[in-house]
Amino acid sequence: MIATGGRVTAVLVGVPFVLAAAGWGAFSVVGTFAHASEQHQASYDWNGGEISLSVGSGRVTVEAGAGSRVDVSYTEHYELKKPTVSAATADGGLQLNAKCPGGIFGNNCAVNYTLTVPASAHLVVHTGDGTVRISGMVNGVSADTGDGGIHLTDVGGDVVARTGDGGIDATRLRSTSVQAETGDGGIRLEWAIAPTSVTATTGDGGIVLAVPSGSGPYNVSATTGDGRAQVNVPTDKASSSSITAHTGDGGILIDNLSGSG
Question: What's the pTM value of the predicted model, to 2 decimals?
Answer without folding.
Answer: 0.85
